[in-house]
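Hi! If you just cloned this repository, the fastest way to understand the data is to look at a raw example. We've pasted two of them here, unedited. The first protein comes first, obviously.
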Amino acid sequence: HLYVYPWVDLQENLQLKSLYSGQKLDPLKLIDEDLKIIKFIKEGRITSQSNITFNTEHVVPQSWFDGDEPMRGDLHHLFACEPACNSMRSNYPYHDFRSYSPEFLSEGIRTGCGMAEDEKFEPEYGKGVAARAVLYFSLRYKDISMLNNKMDFDLLLGWHDQHPVTLYERHRNAAIQELQGNRNPFIDFPELSREMMNL
């Protein structure tokens, strides 16, 4: 959380927004919450997960790469997310359900996190952002990644096309380059996504 909340995940309005639900929260409150949790852990007092407002979502689930570094800490696929959405997503691959239509602005956030069924997950919000993060991961860790057996790349490229790169993502990309020295090319060159994926 050290970099995700206070800098990398800030929106244009200097607030945080959950990747899957769009819920907004003040980053200063989350930093304060994290400091309290760290203190409780050091003192041997465990805090309940129900008291945690946001945590960090790995859009490529850690179980898919055994939680190994450098994948686990790669900021390009880490996002602020409330625990309920993180749990709902579990380690399911992304999917488009025929019966589910998220991100209708006129309806607002109807179901919160999205839809999870048959070990698949469709987020309510953030499809383009999540797609570009997974595409980055598959390119960056192609020799390590087992994503070809887990993710539908045509689906992700469709989300990438339907939900264009945002100012928020450009900010993340610049901040992450400063912190870890690399960029997500799917944000910098969205028009070359299929060439990068060799599709």
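Ok, and the second one:
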Amino acid sequence: RTPLHLRLAEVKQVVSLATAVLREAKQKVSVVIWTDGVPDKRKAFEKALRELMRYPVSVTVRLCTSDEEVIEYYSELDSEVSAPLEVLDDLRSEAIEVSHCNPWLTYAPPLHMVRELGVVHPLIDALDERKLRVGEMKEFIELLLGSPAPLPEPLE
């Protein structure tokens, strides 16, 4: 039994109290859901998720299962709900997805942990969705290394 809709309603209530402050500071709350099952009330969960996403939040769903029904449900939800929703599988599965799009990148545990903790950045989100352009690769490496000064422009 996974009553996720009830938990999301609680989170929404807390976030709603801080919305003005968050928006003024241009900040978001990172909501990370670790789950091994589909919500017991799917429609209620989807409604609660959409309501929560009206607030300054980003949502990461970290799947803790290899059950195909669960993976399929959240993958479909990810494609239906626009950002800021990120659905993550285990390290190996995510590494395979990233390598299909960006074979130059070794997807290692620290990067996976950053994503699991709900860190949101457009380039991190894109790693498993599409091939990064050369300029984006440079920007990603600067982000990853915390480069204090911009790296030289790459040759195309």
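That's it. A detail worth noticing about the second one: Residues 91-156 form one domain.
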